[in-house]
Specification:
The structure holds two protein chains of two kinds. Chain A is mainly alpha-helical. Chain A contains ten helices and no strands. Chain A is globular and about 75 Å long. Chain B starts with a helix and ends with a strand. The chains are: A mainly alpha, B alpha+beta. Chains A and B meet through loops of A and helix 6, helix 8 and helix 10 of B.
Chain lengths: 276, 537
């Protein structure tokens, strides 16, 4: 009885945690969505009269060396950083899962070819490979997303493939096959719903990592183009001011920290609820 | 009883564990400290041993690298002369005073016997660091090697024949070269012992206060005192010049004491050194940050667009706001310190509304209201080619991007270390923004010869003006200094009227050193850094 109560209590706490972090993550997404409306100043407007001013009521996060308001730039940067991360995670989870499921389902040469390509992608250190890809494709947020997608999809393909293989040997799938379900139906009705939870948790947990990698590419000058407000490139632009005008680096740095932490904790909470 | 035994057992185990942990920690600490002691002992022996005899100095520089053409200190190789003269290895026959007037250095005097003949008398008692005596023959060999190996020198000097007789050198030129003496003060004309040769690392034997002993391109140069220096006794025994291309790394190196003085600290780091621990030395130079328009481009080929660019850049705002006063807004090619510089010419002033009107009148209009102007379906996109090794350039690009954006341009910045290759492809850019010393020899001719004429090496935008060609021809044969200055003004005005170039700012060059460093003085020509006077208490 006591055990049952404790389990119930634990579940309630898990749900509460999930609620808190989903609200926080939701807030971040809303900030990104309504960035234009939320910015107190034009994030690209240069003002040589107030270059590098310290945080004040007029500019809560201070201004950068071009006199641009840091708060506005951080908010505008949320759109670039969060949306490009969402797009990236969307691409890799969908394409990776599709590849993994198809490999497991059809096996034979499809499996052999796709998995060997995946092995090749995994053979290089992630960020280094992404650097090479984005150096070849040229700078820009779009190419940074493509570069990271090219190195990150195999994780999902492997996960989806092993889970699908597991499900394929289950009795209910054998029953479905006997009942005459077409391959498409089997995948959509029986396989995908069973692996979706795990893929979703992995994707949410990946948000933080991907955001860091996108920022890293921008920091190195291969991501967002000047003057686009993007957290990684803002930090890169301000790194010479770390000792003299720290707010120029701290504002985007804290934004990355908070966002990555929120998405990671949200992912944790989601996992606790879906896979107790 | 059982419980007690169990407890005792646990206690024993805990005690053993504690001892183990303590022992390991102690061992680790002992190891660390013994390591420290050994190192401390070593370094103190090194210091006490060295202190009495060796005085060392480390100089950090952002520009001593292959990207700048300074892979080594061979004056006959690319821009190696800059490194040769800056770090006290080589010296020239003539040098510049603080007022940028020419004065003899390794030479004692000169005489211009006719338009084509120059007679130079050398100073006695000077030896190269190789041990050879510097006489007319040695200088002749050096200059002959220079013109055969260095294209720019050959083009400046036009030497037909050199004859050496004792300490006298007679130079005969192919055509009248009014600026011969100035050219002999250019870093490429550092006098070195050609017979001693050039080592594999690119080390030459000069006459300067220091002798180079080893060089690793893009890393460091080791110098030792020249015991037989002719003009006083060098005060330091060993100097290391370290290449630190990243300004932030250079800042931290000076803060940590790894280097004793630095050239190229980013302006934004200046507040860190504005205290008793450091000294600044700075002065205005003729280095200008300027944009060259591409006349092959459909965008900057249009005179209205060029005019709008010239009117659309707020130079004062750039200098005051972004360089924090570490520069001077430019009008023409040369700064105020030259008689033919500063306000001697007029250029378009900052007038964004006027610029917008110029574009409007020329048919560049914004029909769809997206803020970007178009003409016959061509959007007003300006490809701004620049490079990162001069810290002001990316800043200027980003500032201009916003300024020109307001009048309907879209500026695409191409900021790359590969700029020298890209600029030779005139389809790749619309405006090339760089930083150049415009009067390295104190004379105005250089800038036009190298940038603006049909025959110029660096006229990558293919600018052409009949009037300018005529004036340049006249300048090439004019010996009268005053007439040369008048021509310089007229030539500047010609290129400014065509808006072929837009001059944004002149550099204020600064070096920062630890307090206690003396004899390190910024010079307007930016050539002389490590001299016989350099000392560190």
């Amino acid at each position: 009885m006591r055990k049952l109560r404790r389990t119930r209590k634990q579940r309630r706490m898990r749900m509460q945690r999930l609620a808190v972090f989903s609200v926080l993550a939701g807030l971040l997404l809303l900030t990104a969505l309504f960035a234009e409306q939320l910015c107190p100043y034009d994030p690209y407007m240069q003002d040589y009269g107030s270059v590098l001013s310290a945080p004040s009521p007029a500019h809560p996060f201070g201004t950068d060396r071009f006199g641009r308001d840091m708060l506005s730039r951080v908010i505008a940067g949320a759109r670039t950083s969060i949306f490009s991360t969402l797009v990236l995670v969307g691409i890799i989870s969908v394409s990776g899962t599709a590849a993994g499921v198809l490999c497991a389902y059809f096996g034979k040469w499809t499996d052999a070819v796709v998995m060997r390509i995946a092995d090749v992608c995994l053979a290089f250190p992630g960020l280094v490979f992404a650097l090479a890809v984005s150096a070849v494709l040229g700078g820009g947020t779009g190419t940074a997303v493509i570069a990271l997608a090219a190195v990150s999809w195999p994780k999902y393909a492997r996960l989806a493939r092993s889970r699908t293989l597991e499900i394929m040997s289950s009795d209910y799938l054998a029953a479905a096959r006997l009942a005459g379900d077409a391959p498409g139906q089997m995948i959509v009705r029986h396989i995908l719903p069973n692996i979706a939870g795990q893929i979703l948790v992995t994707a949410v947990l990946d948000m933080g990592t991907m955001m860091m990698e996108l920022s890293a590419l921008s920091f190195l000058g291969l991501g967002a183009r000047i003057p686009t407000a993007e957290w990684g490139s803002m930090m890169s632009g301000g790194r010479s001011m770390l000792q003299t005008y720290p707010w120029v680096v701290l504002a985007p740095g804290s934004a990355i920290f908070v966002t990555v932490a929120v998405f990671n904790l949200f992912g944790d909470a989601l996992r606790d609820c879906l896979e107790p | 009883m059982m419980k007690k035994e169990k407890n005792t057992g646990r206690k024993k185990r805990t005690a053993v564990l504690q001892r183990l942990v303590l022992g390991m920690t102690a061992g680790l600490l002992a190891g660390i400290f013994s390591g420290c002691t050994v190192r401390e002992g070593d370094s103190s022996t090194y210091q006490t041993g060295e202190e009495s005899s060796t005085k060392t100095f480390v100089f950090g520089d952002t520009t001593f690298n292959a990207e700048n053409g300074e892979a080594d200190i061979n004056p006959r190789h690319d821009n190696g002369g800059w490194a040769c003269i800056r770090y006290g290895v080589g010296e020239t026959l003539f040098r510049f005073t603080d007022q940028m007037e020419i004065e003899p250095w390794l030479a004692r005097s000169y005489e211009n016997t006719d338009e084509l003949t120059w007679k130079i008398t050398l100073r006695d008692g000077i030896t190269f660091t190789s041990g050879r005596n510097m006489d007319g023959e040695a200088v002749k060999e050096c200059l002959e090697a220079l013109v055969s190996e260095h294209d720019r020198a050959a083009g400046d000097l036009h030497i037909a024949e050199i004859t050496a007789e004792g300490m006298t050198l007679t130079i005969r030129t192919e055509i009248p070269v009014p600026t011969l003496i100035n050219a002999l003060a250019d870093p490429y004309a550092c006098i070195c012992d050609v017979r001693a040769g050039v080592t594999e690392d690119g080390i030459v034997q000069g006459t300067g206060p220091y002798r180079a002993v080893s060089l690793t391109p893009d890393t460091s140069l080791e110098l030792v005192k020249n015991e037989d220096y002719w003009n006083g006794e060098p005060k330091l025994d060993e100097i290391t010049v370290r290449t630190i291309t990243d300004g932030d790394t250079l800042t931290m190196a000076l803060q940590s004491g790894e280097i004793d003085a630095a050239y190229g600290i980013p302006y934004l780091s200046y507040p860190l050194f504005e205290n008793d621990g450091y000294t600044f030395t700075g002065c205005a130079t003729s280095r200008v940050f300027f944009g060259a328009m591409n006349f092959e481009s459909g965008i900057t080929g249009d005179p209205a667009v060029r005019k709008a660019i010239a009117m659309g850049i707020d130079k004062e705002g750039f200098v005051e706001g972004l360089l924090d006063g570490n520069g001077y807004a430019a009008t023409g090619v040369y700064p105020d310190s030259f008689a033919f510089g500063g306000d001697a010419v007029t250029a378009e002033g900052y007038d964004p509304d006027g610029a917008a009107q110029v574009l409007e009148d020329a048919g560049w209009t914004d029909e769809d209201g997206d803020g970007l102007r178009e003409k016959d379906g061509t959007p007003l996109v300006l490809r701004w080619l620049t490079y990162p090794s001069r810290q002001e350039l990316p800043l200027l690009a980003e500032a201009a991007q916003a300024m020109l954006g307001e009048i309907g341009f879209r500026v695409e910045i191409i900021n790359t270390a590969d700029h020298n290759r890209l600029r030779s492809d005139s389809s790749a850019w619309d405006i090339y923004v760089s930083a150049m010393v415009t009067a390295p020899t104190g004379d105005p001719e250089y800038f036009f010869t190298y940038h603006c004429l049909d025959s110029s090496d660096s006229n990558d935008g293919h600018y052409h003006s009949d009037r300018l060609e005529e004036l340049a021809e006249e300048m090439a044969r004019t010996f009268d200094v005053q007439r040369r200055e008048e021509l310089a003004v007229e030539m500047q005005q010609t290129i400014l009227d065509d808006n072929a170039y837009v001059f944004c700012s002149h550099l204020r060059m600064s070096m920062i050193a630890k307090a206690g460093v003396t004899g390190l003085t910024a010079h307007p020509c930016d050539y002389y850094e490590i001299t016989v006077d350099l000392d560190y208490e």
